Amino acid sequence: AQTVTQSQPEMSVQEAETVTLSCTYDTSESNYYLFWYKQPPSRQMILVIRQEAYKQQNATENRFSVNFQKAAKSFSLKISDSQLGDTAMYFCAFMKHGGSGTYKYIFGTGTRLKVLA
Amino acid sequence: GAVVSQHPSRVICKSGTSVKIECRSLDFQATTMFWYRQFPKQSLMLMATSNEGSKATYEQGVEKDKFLINHASLTLSTLTVTSAHPEDSSFYICSALRQGAPTEAFFGQGTRLTVV
Questions:
Q1: Which of B10, B43, B49 to probe by mutation at the A interface, max A CB count within 10 Å?
Q2: Quick check: A103 and B104 CB within 8 A?
Q3: Is A70 exposed, middle or buried (0-12, 13-18, 19+ CB in 10 A)?
Q4: Which are the contacts of A57, defined by CB distance < 8 A and separation ≥ 6?
């Protein structure tokens, strides 16, 4: 079974600084996707960044980048130039790309990030 | 594009009654939809995966007779909480994979269910 682990329940960072959120996962699949989602107080899930497992190059989206270590099954998120609006709950997620149209989409336990002024 | 609408956003029902939550993909066809439950300050717990035209696959520990899932069309999946009890009160979220390009799921706004 696939599992996703986030070992940091809470983190804080000063505005304009850089912070890294950790995520590890366990799977025997070779074809899968990894995601970081942001969940603000509205509870609407917002996709921050996506990584395909077959791509070696780390994904980047403006101030957000990942460090994808496939062999170590690690997928950390780096937020540069942190802004007050980045304060939210962050979830790491894994999507198994199953055969015969079967998929599974599971989430880690989450990290609550607070950006301090 | 890729909008998922979940309805209702909030519902209060009496203990013992049933409540239906709808999840619609507005501008794409979704062969697969996921249903999650989220307790306060906790993660999204996958309840079941529904595929259009077939029975839902439930996660271990989720009562299929209590949480009825129907995915009758490529744009609609419903979750019915039957004989609701106060412990069923929670935040329920659906998401959908786009047919032909299932590279990420798109999420509904969630439904806050309160059973009194």
A1: B43
A2: no
A3: middle
A4: none
Q: Which of B85, B84, B52 is nearest to B69 (CA)?
A: B52
**The pLDDT of residue A102 is above 90:** no
CA distance A102 to A9: 31
- The percent of residues above 90 in pLDDT, for chain B, comes to 83
Strand B111-115 relative to strand B10-13: parallel, antiparallel, unpaired?
parallel
Task: Give B8-39 pLDDT, tens digit per residue.
Answer: 999 999 999 999 999 999 999 998 999 999 99
Question: pLDDT-based confidence at A33, cuts 50/70/90?
Answer: very high
> Which of B38, B41, B103 is closest, CB to CB, to A33?
B103
